[in-house]
Amino acid sequence: MKVIAIDDIPVEERQHVREGVFRIQTILDGDPDSPGNFALMLASLPDTYDSPRHRHNFDQFRYQLKGKFDFASDGKMQPGSIAYFPEGTHYGPQTSNEPSLTLVLQFGGASRSGYLSMQQYEKAMQELSQKGTFARGVYTYYKGDGKKVNQDAFEAVWEQVSGRPLEYPKQRYQRPVFMEPEHFNWIAIDEGVERKLLGVFSELGTRACLYRLQPGGALQLEENSLYFIEQGSGRINGNGYTRHTSIQTLIGEEPRLEAETQTQLLQLGLPKFD
User: Could you say which residues of the chain have pLDDT below 50?
Assistant: First the structure.
Protein backbone atom coordinates (compact mmCIF):
# COMPACT_ATOMS: atom_id res chain seq x y z
CA MET A 1 0.00 0.00 0.00
CA LYS A 2 1.09 3.54 -0.73
CA VAL A 3 -0.35 6.67 0.86
CA ILE A 4 0.66 9.90 -0.90
CA ALA A 5 -0.07 13.44 0.34
CA ILE A 6 -0.47 15.86 -2.55
CA ASP A 7 1.71 18.47 -0.81
CA ASP A 8 4.64 16.04 -1.03
CA ILE A 9 4.47 15.91 -4.85
CA PRO A 10 6.38 18.62 -6.77
CA VAL A 11 4.65 20.58 -9.51
CA GLU A 12 6.36 20.17 -12.89
CA GLU A 13 5.85 22.25 -16.00
CA ARG A 14 5.88 20.12 -19.12
CA GLN A 15 5.43 20.86 -22.79
CA HIS A 16 2.71 18.61 -24.14
CA VAL A 17 2.24 17.21 -27.63
CA ARG A 18 -1.39 18.32 -27.64
CA GLU A 19 -0.75 22.04 -27.00
CA GLY A 20 0.83 24.36 -24.47
CA VAL A 21 2.50 23.91 -21.11
CA PHE A 22 0.91 21.66 -18.49
CA ARG A 23 1.50 21.97 -14.75
CA ILE A 24 1.45 18.37 -13.51
CA GLN A 25 1.87 16.51 -10.23
CA THR A 26 2.55 12.84 -10.95
CA ILE A 27 1.13 11.18 -7.85
CA LEU A 28 1.58 7.47 -8.57
CA ASP A 29 2.84 5.37 -11.44
CA GLY A 30 3.29 1.71 -12.30
CA ASP A 31 5.75 -0.62 -14.01
CA PRO A 32 6.63 0.49 -17.58
CA ASP A 33 7.29 -3.14 -18.55
CA SER A 34 3.81 -4.26 -17.47
CA PRO A 35 0.65 -4.16 -19.63
CA GLY A 36 -0.98 -2.59 -16.56
CA ASN A 37 1.41 0.37 -16.36
CA PHE A 38 -0.34 3.58 -15.28
CA ALA A 39 0.12 7.19 -14.22
CA LEU A 40 -2.14 9.05 -11.78
CA MET A 41 -1.72 12.80 -12.20
CA LEU A 42 -3.20 16.07 -11.02
CA ALA A 43 -3.10 18.30 -14.11
CA SER A 44 -3.54 22.06 -14.27
CA LEU A 45 -4.21 23.26 -17.82
CA PRO A 46 -4.32 26.80 -19.24
CA ASP A 47 -7.47 28.49 -20.53
CA THR A 48 -6.17 28.24 -24.10
CA TYR A 49 -6.13 24.43 -24.18
CA ASP A 50 -7.52 22.63 -27.19
CA SER A 51 -6.94 19.19 -28.66
CA PRO A 52 -8.08 17.66 -31.96
CA ARG A 53 -10.29 14.61 -32.17
CA HIS A 54 -8.09 11.59 -31.51
CA ARG A 55 -7.85 8.20 -29.77
CA HIS A 56 -5.36 6.22 -27.70
CA ASN A 57 -4.24 2.62 -27.29
CA PHE A 58 -4.70 2.94 -23.51
CA ASP A 59 -7.62 3.65 -21.14
CA GLN A 60 -8.20 6.90 -19.30
CA PHE A 61 -10.33 8.28 -16.45
CA ARG A 62 -10.75 11.99 -15.75
CA TYR A 63 -12.24 13.56 -12.62
CA GLN A 64 -12.94 17.26 -13.07
CA LEU A 65 -12.11 19.30 -9.96
CA LYS A 66 -12.09 22.86 -11.36
CA GLY A 67 -12.98 24.39 -14.72
CA LYS A 68 -14.90 22.95 -17.64
CA PHE A 69 -14.09 20.99 -20.81
CA ASP A 70 -16.13 20.69 -23.98
CA PHE A 71 -15.69 17.48 -25.99
CA ALA A 72 -18.03 18.54 -28.81
CA SER A 73 -20.68 15.90 -29.57
CA ASP A 74 -19.20 13.44 -27.03
CA GLY A 75 -20.12 15.45 -23.94
CA LYS A 76 -19.01 18.09 -21.47
CA MET A 77 -17.20 17.99 -18.13
CA GLN A 78 -17.74 20.37 -15.22
CA PRO A 79 -16.58 20.24 -11.59
CA GLY A 80 -17.66 16.86 -10.20
CA SER A 81 -17.89 15.14 -13.60
CA ILE A 82 -16.09 11.85 -14.26
CA ALA A 83 -15.40 10.42 -17.71
CA TYR A 84 -14.01 7.14 -19.02
CA PHE A 85 -12.15 7.25 -22.34
CA PRO A 86 -11.72 3.67 -23.63
CA GLU A 87 -8.77 2.54 -25.71
CA GLY A 88 -9.40 2.63 -29.44
CA THR A 89 -12.36 5.04 -29.16
CA HIS A 90 -12.16 8.50 -30.76
CA TYR A 91 -13.13 11.56 -28.72
CA GLY A 92 -13.07 15.32 -29.04
CA PRO A 93 -12.11 17.83 -30.21
CA GLN A 94 -11.52 19.04 -26.65
CA THR A 95 -11.56 22.74 -25.77
CA SER A 96 -11.64 24.96 -22.69
CA ASN A 97 -11.76 28.73 -22.20
CA GLU A 98 -10.92 28.73 -18.49
CA PRO A 99 -8.13 27.30 -16.30
CA SER A 100 -8.81 23.78 -15.08
CA LEU A 101 -7.70 21.21 -12.51
CA THR A 102 -8.26 17.54 -13.35
CA LEU A 103 -7.36 14.23 -11.75
CA VAL A 104 -6.21 12.06 -14.66
CA LEU A 105 -5.56 8.32 -14.65
CA GLN A 106 -4.04 6.84 -17.80
CA PHE A 107 -3.44 3.07 -17.83
CA GLY A 108 -2.98 0.02 -19.99
CA GLY A 109 -6.33 -1.42 -21.03
CA ALA A 110 -7.72 -4.87 -21.71
CA SER A 111 -5.97 -5.18 -25.10
CA ARG A 112 -2.63 -5.35 -23.24
CA SER A 113 -1.20 -2.55 -25.39
CA GLY A 114 0.36 -1.06 -22.26
CA TYR A 115 1.06 2.57 -21.44
CA LEU A 116 4.18 4.69 -22.04
CA SER A 117 6.00 6.08 -19.02
CA MET A 118 6.52 9.85 -18.78
CA GLN A 119 10.27 9.33 -19.25
CA GLN A 120 9.71 7.38 -22.49
CA TYR A 121 7.22 10.02 -23.65
CA GLU A 122 9.49 13.02 -23.07
CA LYS A 123 12.56 11.35 -24.58
CA ALA A 124 10.64 10.53 -27.75
CA MET A 125 9.28 14.08 -27.98
CA GLN A 126 12.80 15.48 -27.82
CA GLU A 127 14.00 13.07 -30.51
CA LEU A 128 11.10 13.86 -32.82
CA SER A 129 11.57 17.61 -32.33
CA GLN A 130 14.93 17.28 -34.07
CA LYS A 131 13.23 16.59 -37.40
CA GLY A 132 9.71 18.00 -37.04
CA THR A 133 7.33 20.17 -35.02
CA PHE A 134 4.40 19.65 -32.65
CA ALA A 135 1.39 21.98 -32.91
CA ARG A 136 -2.19 21.58 -31.63
CA GLY A 137 -1.92 17.82 -31.27
CA VAL A 138 -0.33 17.19 -34.66
CA TYR A 139 3.26 16.23 -35.46
CA THR A 140 4.52 17.58 -38.80
CA TYR A 141 7.67 16.54 -40.61
CA TYR A 142 9.03 16.28 -44.15
CA LYS A 143 10.18 13.11 -45.88
CA GLY A 144 13.42 12.90 -47.82
CA ASP A 145 11.56 13.73 -51.05
CA GLY A 146 10.17 16.90 -49.48
CA LYS A 147 6.66 15.53 -48.96
CA LYS A 148 4.90 16.99 -45.91
CA VAL A 149 3.46 14.52 -43.39
CA ASN A 150 0.95 15.33 -40.62
CA GLN A 151 0.52 12.66 -37.94
CA ASP A 152 -1.37 12.48 -34.65
CA ALA A 153 1.13 13.62 -32.02
CA PHE A 154 0.60 10.74 -29.60
CA GLU A 155 0.80 8.23 -32.42
CA ALA A 156 4.14 9.69 -33.53
CA VAL A 157 5.54 9.52 -29.99
CA TRP A 158 4.37 5.93 -29.46
CA GLU A 159 5.93 4.80 -32.74
CA GLN A 160 9.19 6.54 -31.88
CA VAL A 161 9.37 4.60 -28.59
CA SER A 162 8.17 1.26 -29.99
CA GLY A 163 9.88 1.30 -33.37
CA ARG A 164 6.79 0.00 -35.16
CA PRO A 165 3.42 1.29 -36.42
CA LEU A 166 0.73 1.79 -33.80
CA GLU A 167 -2.21 -0.60 -34.16
CA TYR A 168 -5.21 0.68 -32.23
CA PRO A 169 -7.36 -1.79 -30.29
CA LYS A 170 -10.79 -2.47 -31.73
CA GLN A 171 -13.49 -0.34 -30.13
CA ARG A 172 -15.25 -1.90 -27.17
CA TYR A 173 -17.25 1.31 -26.74
CA GLN A 174 -18.49 3.52 -29.56
CA ARG A 175 -18.15 6.67 -27.43
CA PRO A 176 -16.47 7.74 -24.21
CA VAL A 177 -18.64 7.48 -21.10
CA PHE A 178 -19.44 10.78 -19.32
CA MET A 179 -20.80 10.47 -15.78
CA GLU A 180 -22.48 12.99 -13.48
CA PRO A 181 -22.07 11.51 -9.97
CA GLU A 182 -24.35 14.18 -8.50
CA HIS A 183 -27.28 12.45 -10.23
CA PHE A 184 -26.51 9.02 -8.70
CA ASN A 185 -28.10 8.00 -5.41
CA TRP A 186 -26.04 7.15 -2.35
CA ILE A 187 -26.60 3.54 -1.25
CA ALA A 188 -25.86 2.58 2.36
CA ILE A 189 -23.48 -0.40 2.52
CA ASP A 190 -22.49 -0.27 6.20
CA GLU A 191 -23.07 1.86 9.26
CA GLY A 192 -21.89 5.36 8.38
CA VAL A 193 -20.75 4.30 4.87
CA GLU A 194 -22.47 4.98 1.53
CA ARG A 195 -21.50 4.20 -2.06
CA LYS A 196 -22.21 5.34 -5.61
CA LEU A 197 -21.18 2.67 -8.12
CA LEU A 198 -20.61 4.68 -11.30
CA GLY A 199 -19.61 1.90 -13.66
CA VAL A 200 -17.64 -1.28 -14.40
CA PHE A 201 -15.84 -1.33 -17.76
CA SER A 202 -14.32 -3.96 -20.07
CA GLU A 203 -13.88 -7.67 -19.47
CA LEU A 204 -11.13 -6.98 -16.90
CA GLY A 205 -13.44 -5.22 -14.44
CA THR A 206 -12.09 -1.66 -14.47
CA ARG A 207 -14.38 0.39 -12.23
CA ALA A 208 -15.23 3.82 -10.88
CA CYS A 209 -16.94 4.25 -7.53
CA LEU A 210 -17.52 7.01 -4.96
CA TYR A 211 -17.71 6.46 -1.20
CA ARG A 212 -18.93 8.74 1.59
CA LEU A 213 -18.12 8.07 5.24
CA GLN A 214 -19.49 9.80 8.31
CA PRO A 215 -17.13 10.43 11.26
CA GLY A 216 -16.42 7.05 12.84
CA GLY A 217 -17.31 5.16 9.65
CA ALA A 218 -14.89 2.50 8.37
CA LEU A 219 -14.34 1.07 4.89
CA GLN A 220 -12.33 -1.96 3.80
CA LEU A 221 -10.54 -0.79 0.65
CA GLU A 222 -10.40 -3.13 -2.35
CA GLU A 223 -7.19 -4.53 -3.81
CA ASN A 224 -5.60 -3.37 -7.07
CA SER A 225 -7.15 0.09 -6.85
CA LEU A 226 -6.31 3.77 -6.67
CA TYR A 227 -8.22 6.01 -4.27
CA PHE A 228 -8.38 9.81 -4.18
CA ILE A 229 -9.64 11.64 -1.09
CA GLU A 230 -11.82 14.48 -2.31
CA GLN A 231 -12.49 15.73 1.20
CA GLY A 232 -12.11 14.63 4.81
CA SER A 233 -9.48 13.27 7.18
CA GLY A 234 -8.79 10.06 9.05
CA ARG A 235 -6.46 7.07 9.00
CA ILE A 236 -5.63 4.08 6.78
CA ASN A 237 -3.93 1.24 8.66
CA GLY A 238 -2.40 3.85 10.95
CA ASN A 239 -1.40 6.29 8.18
CA GLY A 240 -3.09 9.67 8.27
CA TYR A 241 -4.95 11.09 5.29
CA THR A 242 -6.35 14.54 4.45
CA ARG A 243 -7.90 16.24 1.43
CA HIS A 244 -6.34 15.16 -1.91
CA THR A 245 -4.42 12.25 -0.40
CA SER A 246 -4.03 9.34 -2.84
CA ILE A 247 -3.86 5.64 -1.94
CA GLN A 248 -2.68 2.66 -3.98
CA THR A 249 -3.61 -0.86 -2.96
CA LEU A 250 -1.80 -3.80 -4.54
CA ILE A 251 -3.24 -7.24 -5.29
CA GLY A 252 -3.84 -9.00 -1.99
CA GLU A 253 -4.06 -5.74 0.02
CA GLU A 254 -7.33 -4.63 1.63
CA PRO A 255 -6.44 -1.92 4.18
CA ARG A 256 -9.02 -0.37 6.48
CA LEU A 257 -9.89 3.32 6.16
CA GLU A 258 -11.36 5.01 9.23
CA ALA A 259 -12.92 8.46 8.93
CA GLU A 260 -12.37 11.08 11.64
CA THR A 261 -14.30 13.76 9.71
CA GLN A 262 -16.83 13.31 6.92
CA THR A 263 -14.88 11.80 4.03
CA GLN A 264 -15.62 11.41 0.35
CA LEU A 265 -13.28 9.42 -1.87
CA LEU A 266 -13.09 8.16 -5.44
CA GLN A 267 -12.06 4.60 -6.24
CA LEU A 268 -10.59 3.78 -9.64
CA GLY A 269 -10.22 0.00 -9.83
CA LEU A 270 -7.42 -1.07 -12.17
CA PRO A 271 -7.89 -3.94 -14.65
CA LYS A 272 -6.96 -7.39 -13.35
CA PHE A 273 -4.84 -9.00 -16.04
CA ASP A 274 -4.35 -12.28 -14.17
Answer: none
